[in-house]
Design brief:
The structure is a single chain. This protein has about 350 residues and is α/β, with parallel strands linked by helices. The protein has 14 helices and 8 strands. It folds into 2 domains: about 70 residues, no CATH class; about 230 residues, Rossmann fold (3-Layer(aba) Sandwich). Helix content is about 45%, strand content about 15%. Helix 1 runs antiparallel to helix 2. Bound molecules: zinc ion. Zinc ion binds next to helix 12.
Length: about 350
């Protein structure tokens, strides 16, 4: 019997050295087993071949039975393991958990001490509404989508025009004439299929503002239309939602985070009334440097990520002013007005 077992071992190791697959080696050993069993049954007792290979079929049958039990057990174990292993489970793309391959995309966030895995999860669970898919909204939307903000709403009633493309790089030449929100949606989906984008092709109005803002945790305002800005601020204050608002003119941009529910000023504390006509000309009238909205819109996304993850200090109660023409930045402190008609005691 020892002779046969030695032969089986020799087959196994010789096969391994020559690179034969394990299945082929097991098959050869099984053939050897069948041959030996046949010798035990076919040859008369005392035959030298039968004596040399064990002498009786009983021991071989017991050994074969044990081998079959071990084989069945390991197969069963492998099947159970493959069922439990996470990569065999289907995963949803945009639920509270990260989809397969999704965490890889945020690896540079996850290694940041101030964001990490918990911060990235907060970003995924966050719902951010961006008002305006123009100069400021466009870069903000791109970076929010890339950063993995789970739900991004965007409201804008305009269509893409050729004059937008000098600065609104979320849109493309072939999407001229398409509603900006759908163009932005296409760009965000192409950038990050794991985020949910909700486009609203209309201007923000009094009738829909409260209901829309209620669906989101954080509002970003990048419009250049003063009545809309005041509406966004009033709605955000009433709903106790933080508001990141920015504005541009020619070579200069400014940005702050407005949050009276955290004892910080609201937009109307700082800008109590719309400037007189002509004093704050629009981009169309006065012109604007192409990369400037890129700088300030990206800062809006920075503030959003900080506010959502709790990293660092936001610009609440401070305004950052960037003068691109002279390469200067300034920070000015902002104070709440107790008599503010929006967030004041009255
Ligand atoms: Zn106020």
């Amino acid at each position: 019997m020892a002779l046969v077992l030695a032969m089986a071992a020799a087959i196994w190791f010789a096969g391994r050295r020559t690179g034969a697959p394990a299945n082929a080696r097991w098959l050869t050993i099984a053939l050897l087993y069948v041959l030996v069993l046949a010798l035990q049954v076919a040859l008369p007792v005392g035959h030298p071949f039968r004596e040399a290979t064990g002498g009786s079929a009983g021991e071989w049958l017991v050994l074969g039975g044990l081998g079959a039990i071990v084989w069945a057990y390991t197969r069963g174990l492998a099947r159970v393991r493959s069922r439990v292993r996470p990569e065999n489970r289907p995963r949803p793309a945009t639920s509270g958990t990260f989809g397969e391959g999704e965490l890889d995309r945020y690896a540079r966030h996850v290694v940041l001490r101030e964001i990490g895995g918990p911060g990235q999860r907060r970003l995924k669970e966050a719902r951010v509404l961006v008002v305006g898919a123009g100069g400021l909204g466009a870069p903000a939307l791109q970076y929010l989508a890339a950063a993995g903000v789970g739900t991004i709403g965007v409201i804008d009633g305009d269509e893409v025009e050729a004059t937008n493309l000098q600065r609104q790089v979320i849109h493309t030449d072939e999407r001229i004439g398409m509603p900006k929100v759908f163009s932005a949606e296409a760009a965000m989906r192409a950038l990050n299929p794991y985020v949910e984008v909700r486009p609203y092709h209309r201007r923000l109005t009094e009738e829909i503002a409260a209901e829309l803002v209620a669906d989101y945790d954080l509002i970003l305002d990048g419009t250049d239309h003063f009545p809309t800005r005041f509406l966004v601020n009033r709605t955000a204050v009433a709903a106790r939602k933080p508001l990141v608002a920015a504005a541009l003119s020619q070579w200069e941009g400014q940005i702050s985070l407005y949050e009276p529910s955290a004892e910080k000023p609201c937009y109307e504390c700082i800008f109590p009334e719309a400037p007189a006509p002509g004093l704050a000309p629009s981009c169309a009238e006065a012109g604007v440097l192409g990369p400037l909205p890129g700088v300030v819109g990206a800062l809006m996304a920075v503030e959003a990520v900080k506010r959502i993850t709790g990293a660092g200090e936001t610009l609440a109660g401070r305004m950052l002013i960037y003068d691109a023409l002279y390469g200067e930045t300034r920070i000015i402190a902002l104070r709440r007005r107790p008599d503010c008609p929006v967030c004041g005691e009255a």
